[in-house]
Amino acid sequence: MPCARPEKSSTERPAHNGAGLVPIPPRAGLAGLGRRTYDVTAAAGWGWPYPVPGYVLTGQPPAEHPQGADITFTDRPLSGVVTEARERIADDRDVWVVGGAGVVRDFLAAGLVDQLRLFVPVMLGHGIRLFQPVDRRSTLTLQRVKELPEGMVELAYAVQR
Fold first, then answer.
1. 3-state class of 146 per DSSP?
2. For the chain (length 161 residues), average pLDDT per consecutive 10?
């Protein structure tokens, strides 16, 4: 999800060379995102800004997508997508879900989230609320607070299932 321009460090790989995207966790082996987040990156001219393969969760794949990018567009159930994604990832890397309140809520509701990282303040104007009523209760335990440039703060929570 577009937000601040975090500094590059030895433990995080910024997407698109720090072009204003969330830093990619070092253990990420694959990115999962919704169509709206994909459209934001495409409209910004970033192509596929992540240095890992990805799944875009959508029932309407775009007519065109970035050349050479390893992207799978799918509308299959999340559990099947995550199982397939984990099979594609080498070295026991993580599936990284980035952006889109709807996608994050769907992953939380399915019990497929181990850690939730929030970047505050990111005010994108109108949009879908991240915290709405859900059928599945999730207990969050704060793991760390990290100050980022431009007045941003990253909050990392472990998700208890």
1. strand
2. 29 42 80 88 83 91 83 91 85 82 83 83 62 73 88 86 74
